[in-house]
Amino acid sequence: GPCTGCSCSSGKESKKDTSSTKKKENGDRSFIPKIFFGTRTHKQISQITRELKRTAYSSVPMTILSSRDYTCIHPVVSSSGSNRNEMCVELLEGKHGKSCSYYHGVHKLSEHHAQQSLHRMYQAWDIEDLVSLAKKLRACAYFAARELMVGADIVFCPYNYLLDPQIRESMEINLKGQVVILDEAHNIEDCARESMSYSVTESQLRAAREELDFMVNNNIRQKDHEPLRAVCCSLT
């Protein structure tokens, strides 16, 4: 029979209120949990969404969270290499008197998906589909994907978006009361270690030590900077 736990339901809602799918939150308002589907790579997300298209749940509202490396369409930022995040933030803050016109067009993508859903033309999509549509509408795919998370029943993302607390916070992901599915979960340990690890080069350590030397020699918060300088010295 028709499902009643998600927005793709076309039949009458079951008289039984299953506590596993619906919880009461803030009084009378019912709470339907989202499904967060974590994969090891972005390529695997493409495979999952392709399979989703073949099911009866293809019309369920969804989104894919990914980095600017995959979704940024700004001609300058997208070709900048490793510092896309910094350049994007600078544009949004208008540091150099310039802004991102694509960011201001985010609502175009959201409205497009809403119209498709309204006319029952909505289908599961992939990152490439979103980026292609974003280029046509001149809208930011990165922030549009995040905005679509509000109304999505299924959210696809790499493991670290769910495991790394800093990424969770920056992406405004709240897993409390939600359903979490981890594909190929035997890779979780490696991903967890990576999330709590950081790599620095010897040249970066030496540069940090020189800056700390300057701070200490000029009596700038010596009590704070001397222990940090000692760490840099011991590591080098």
Automatic annotation (TrEMBL):
UniProt feature, compositional bias: Basic and acidic residues: 12-27
InterPro entries listed in its UniProt record: DinG/Rad3-like, Helic_SF1/SF2_ATP-bd_DinG/Rad3, Helicase-like_DEXD_c2, P-loop_NTPase, RAD3-like_helicase_DEAD
Domain Helicase ATP-binding: 1-232
Record flagged with keyword Hydrolase: yes
Region (Disordered): 1-27
Example GO biological process: double-strand break repair involved in meiotic recombination
Molecular-function annotations in GO: ATP binding; DNA binding; DNA helicase activity; hydrolase activity, acting on acid anhydrides, in phosphorus-containing anhydrides
Name of protein: FANCJ protein
Source species taxonomy: Eukaryota, Metazoa, Chordata, Craniata, Vertebrata
Gene label: Brip1
